[in-house]
Amino acid sequence: MLTVVALGGNALLGPGERGTAVEQRGNLAKTFAAAASILTDGPVVVTHGNGPQVGNELLRQELASAEAPPLPLYVAVAQTQAEIGALIAAELEPVAGKRVAVVLTRVVVAEDDPAFTEPTKPVGPFYDAERAQALEQERGWAVREDANRGWRRVVPSPTPLEVLELGPIRTLLESGILVVAVGGGGIPVVARDGRHDGVDAVIDKDHASALLAIELGAERFVILTQVPTVYTGFGTDEQQALEELVPGRDDGLIESLPAGSMRPKVEAAFRFVRETGGEALITSSDALAAGEAGTRVVAPA
Known about the structure:
CATH class of the largest domain: Alpha Beta
Distance between the termini: 21 Å
CATH topology of the largest domain: Carbamate kinase
């Protein structure tokens, strides 16, 4: 059974942690130990987020900009794919008992995607208003005030269309190697004149992971996040755990979920189940360790 496992940010960073390599490896070790039954049940591809890591990389570039030129955002995504992939490989191999390959993964987006005309995804450090306006002029950035904490750069979050390294990923899986791919949603590229050029954008990790799972013909798609299950009324007195969701029957639930957290996970799981007939699971590594079921997303009976 081919499984794609999408790691959420808590698989790498815990509350109050700075994001050192030691901290991230320790968190990954706990996550993989909890998910051992999934990681040893046939071929596996692991995907991951990279939000804090990209933020740190952009901060390093900003602080060093007087000495070294800042690089495009899509290059920072590539850098963090390698960074996080190395940490994952170090902790995944002893649990899975297999070799692990980290694949630098590009994901095609449409150059005319509406997201490019309305960037919404905040990235990088906070600035005061004066510095933000200067960067907007100097670098052509879009900036926006973020929750009264300062100003941040905002970038597009376009829809993923194609995973370019699909063939090599499939070949590695057929050779019995576990694969780490589509890190941070993939390096966003657009097709131009027979080539693929990187663009400054951020692709949603869960949607890109679902696309990869569909293109690979995976039978199972597991999204590991911070909470053990999907809830209605999350954080309220009416909070209720959902053990099972069915695309079509439960489509109306999606709009009630938080757009920046659980909604894209449920959307991605629904798309995977619709297009493959497979099964998706949304849960946390702690829930897996405790033997709890999480939220299963299944095809209509």
